[in-house]
Design goal:
Number of helices of chain A: 8
Largest sheet of chain A: none
Oligomer: homodimer
Shape of chain A: elongated
Strand content of chain A: under 5%
Order of helices and strands of chain A: HHHHHHHH
Mean pLDDT of chain A: 91
Distance between the termini of chain A: 65 Å
Largest interface: A-B, 38 and 38 residues
Amino acid sequence: MVETKTLSRHHHGNLKEALVEYALDAARAGVLNDLSLRQASRDLGVSPGAAYRHFKDRNSLMRHVAQRGFDELASRFEAAIPFASQAQTSGDARDRFLSLAHAYVAFSKDNPTLWRLMFGRFGLSSSSETARPSTYEWLSKSLVELAVFDVIRPPDGAAQFFAWSAIHGLSDLSSSPAVSFVDDKTVIEAHCEFILAALS
Amino acid sequence: MVETKTLSRHHHGNLKEALVEYALDAARAGVLNDLSLRQASRDLGVSPGAAYRHFKDRNSLMRHVAQRGFDELASRFEAAIPFASQAQTSGDARDRFLSLAHAYVAFSKDNPTLWRLMFGRFGLSSSSETARPSTYEWLSKSLVELAVFDVIRPPDGAAQFFAWSAIHGLSDLSSSPAVSFVDDKTVIEAHCEFILAALS
DNA sequence: GATCAAAGTAAACAGTGATTACAAAGCGCG
DNA sequence: CGCGCTTTGTAATCACTGTTTACTTTGATC
């Protein structure tokens, strides 16, 4: 006897979260840009003005969605390289670096629309992320590991920034429907080899 | 006795171009996203429907604007390294490569909104640009020059793509208001050194 | 000068973001 | 319980948008 929750309730229950999920679905479908608060409200069975109890305006919702993107990206990084874990060998350190690159690129390819939101109009500066997304920490850690096993020189700030922007560039281009590779894996690995060579 | 052209003429003269310029101004002002065809038409002294004689819809205008961005970028590349010219020494080849990188980054910083349009929703795939923008030719040429003077190994496709994406990544991050450097020149030069080291 | 395509107008339609005054739930507390 | 207060939703409304339609003006061409 599960109580049906959808019958004529004044309170939606969790409209804020529902709106964010709705927008994330739109992003997955590639139609985030023409998402309308009214249509969303209609689909969620709520009146047009209701959304404004949770978001100041449409852009505010977008910012929240962008933040979700950064959260998801961080979670993929954590899955690829649990932050508390450590490399045991130089081969291990290389693998971990590669895993990060794969995670970065895979995310941008899996979520091109969300990606553009994150690093576009509502990215970095306007979301709660500071100048560098929190994922920067994983990358940084990975580079330090590589240095420990003498795969590269100890990375200074410039080296870390270089590695970030190089991987970011690959991801950004990969998220474009116009740029596609026969074999992602090969391209990413070659890219990483170049980066490591630059830092050696 | 110059005839005043603005008095009650039925034909605007060159509305299509005027609309593109208007949008480019909006981009420079950072308000491209909320550009409205109606407001633009009003400001250009023309009725709301007039724009539709020249553009199928709003997105069509955006695509044209994005194309203008690629044109402008190409023109900056040409200014930095006239395509017909050639490097004479290895130092020359390095300088030319650096000039390209500077041009790329300067463009993205000067036109962040246009940049996002070009590489975002209306970029690459949807504009008339093919998978790789025409500027790819300059970069490619520059790398070949560097190889001629033994600064790097002869670049294959992977190497060229690496260089592009590395510079693209730097430009993309640079165009974000959240990422700024004390000294652009130093950062760009360091970045280029890393790239050249990777290709050596 | 008549003809005809190109380029503008005017009016309308559906849909949007946002604000307002009001109503209903949920809650804490005596 | 029942009283109040805050949160959350509603209904109505405003100004505005993209886009289409039927109609008019214009400029060029034979």
